[in-house]
Amino acid sequence: MPFRNNVTRLLDARHIAYTVFEFSPEKHSAEETAELLQVPPDHVYKTLVVLREAKGKKPLLVMVPAGRELDLKKLAASVGEKKLKMATQREAEVLTGLQVGGISALALLNKGFEICLDHAAPTLPYIHLSAGQRGANLRLTVADLIVITQAKLVETG
Questions:
Q1: Domain CATH code at residue 82
Q2: 124 is a domain residue
Q3: Phi, psi of 120 (to 5 degrees)
Q4: 3-state secondary structure of 143
Q5: Inside any domain, residue 38
Q6: DSSP letter string, 100-133
Q7: How far apart (Å, rounded) are the C-alpha atoms in residues 100 and 104?
Q8: How many CB atoms lie within 10 A of CB 29?
Q9: Is 1 part of any domain?
Q10: 42: which of 28, 97, 141, 145 is 20 to 30 A away, CA to CA?
Q11: What is the tally of structural domains in the chain?
């Protein structure tokens, strides 16, 4: 039976082409996921939860290529903030309702997050990212990802 969840149903409803890849649900880094999928690491994006300093402002979901550390100062400048901080694993899971390793902007549309994507992503033919749960990864075009998420292109490193 093919993999189905809210993310795949959303993509199907919007007629967006994608491919699902399933693997063991144990926690995998983006780099390990690239190895499992046998794709270049810069084609696999991890989704990080970033908090703003100002109270009441939306957290950010920032999609960054595997193997890259997020530069919070560059990201802050890109989104017009003075200071940002990474959410802890616990904060990320509480805010998103998803486990680290399964956090996906596609699973969190209309949930109060500002969605950001590394500015280099549009140079890629496709992108891999979490399908909204551990052990499931999606491949889709970057253009489709930007359209469906309304992601803002930002400097992340």
A1: 3.90.960.10
A2: yes
A3: -85, -15
A4: helix
A5: yes
A6: TTS--GGGSTTSSPEEEEETTGGGSS-EEEE-SS
A7: 9
A8: 14
A9: no
A10: 97
A11: 1
